[in-house]
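Because discrete structure vocabularies remain unfamiliar, it helps to consider an illustrative case, giving the amino acid sequence and backbone structure tokens:
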Amino acid sequence: MKYVSGPYFEPDFDPVLDRFGTPGVVIDNETREDCTLVKVDSVNRDGVLLEMVQLLTDLDLVISKSYISSDGGWLMDVFHVTDQIGRKLTDPSLPEFIQQALVPSHRPGNGPSPKFTTCLGNVVGPGGPDLSDCACLEFTVHDRPGLLSSITQVLVDQGCHVASGQAWTHSGRAAGLLYVTTTADAAALHPSRWARIERLVGAVVDARENVPGERRWVCMSAPVRGRVHTERRLHQLMHDDRDYERGPAPTPVDEELLSMVDRAATTTALSALRARAAETRVTIDNWEERGYAIVKMTSRDRPRLLFDTVCALTDMQYVVFHATVGSQGPLAIQEYYIRHKDGRTVDSSSERHKVSRCLVAAVERRGSHGAKVEVRAADRPGLLSDFSRTLGEHGMSLLRAELKRQKDEAIGTFHLVTDSGGQVRPEALRAVRTRVSDMGISLDIITEAPGWPPVRKTSVPASATAQERPGSSLRTLLWSHLGKLSNNFGYIRS
């Protein structure tokens, strides 16, 4: 079909960009009163957009909206960001850190990766949680109650300690990455033990499956530096496991829902809107004149949404040339102009159906369902096994799990449901909290934060308008144009 509306792209844009200098990062705190604009221009190489979004996410920054443009050999992206408590970015070392992290050649003497401490106290880069000496256990299996408890008990029996890890579930499938060392001295596992651990974990999974031909994947990998980002790898594992094949077919974007947002002024109307926005919807069209597939998505707004969507498009070998991402109330709206790496668009109905399913799966893998709890304890062997076993004894199952280590303390975040998939009762959570306190584990029940973002002012100070400043460069004028475009969209929390 022909797509007759869309952004206009100046034919002379590419040669203009070719005359620009080296890649750069600009932190703009002047244009908006409510957030910081992170502007990145760089050579448009394979995977650079995902690297940018992943880096901003790892820095514990909230991406409220973005405008992405990368036609030609160059990209220019604008991200509206704050820290986790809604403040602007004021650390003067942040632009240099982002630049050096994205462009290794910009490091002094091509030295080691830089490091940065985020607003939550997490360290990104050297000095953060070092998993380089940990072997990694990967698995994708059929989900069932007690799965993580069974797997971690095998590790405990084999003298292994889970230093860090994450596990996700979606559509009856489970995937996880557990970084393990020996319990004796936290040393790396010898390769001679990997095959035995793989075999024992596989036996535990098979013993409880009882489904002929059920697919599974269990693999131990060597300690390496620069291994794939954990959440990025989880998306890859679940995509390769084809978790997107289950469930009903995705529904197209509801244009009526978009118009409802502006009219939803009362609390009752907003509640009804949130209920309708909970479903992830996808519409895919082809813009034949420009050779793009146009992907439009709506879903419930939540953190890390942009990262999850870009991961899915990257896994399917699609390249994002232009994108606008924002929100209206509780509804996140994403629009992408994409082509496959081989130059084609989403040509067939079967391909559109698959792409839609993959995007919906990527969004829903991290859906915040179930009761959310945070646990803290002195790091010790068997900690994850003890906690997950206690959950099973109280009739609870894990939807998502994340365990990390900060110095000598283990911190875990878990999303829980009953074994039958229902909501966990408050009294059951209190019983678990009492039980694990005897194990030296503190448990906090996390309630959902109030609506985000807060009411924001949209005025742009006149002093920030590039055209009014004498001597503005061509790059400054282009940034001003992109900034104005991005100011027209609402906010997501990604």
Remarks:
- The radius of gyration is 24 Å.
- The longest strand covers residues 160-170.
- The chain has 13 helices and 18 strands.
